[in-house]
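Hello Y.,

Per our agreement to keep a running log of every chain we model this quarter, I'm adding this entry. I've kept the format consistent with earlier entries: sequence first, then predicted structure.
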Amino acid sequence: MAKLGGVKEVEGSANSVEINSLARYAVDDYNQKQNALLEFKKVVNAKQQVVAGTIYYITLEVTEDGV
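Predicted structure for the entry above:
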């Protein structure tokens, strides 16, 4: 059993609709705030920490300007 507040891997994160949606949102938010043109490619890894809510740590792959 994981200790309370511990960070753990999200199994199947590369295929998770929820994790992919969060990753796409993060890229869109970054693009808007930084006036950038990053394009989401895929989730590489994801971890989560449950405290008062859930914190996700997502490693993702992007391309810049369609490259």
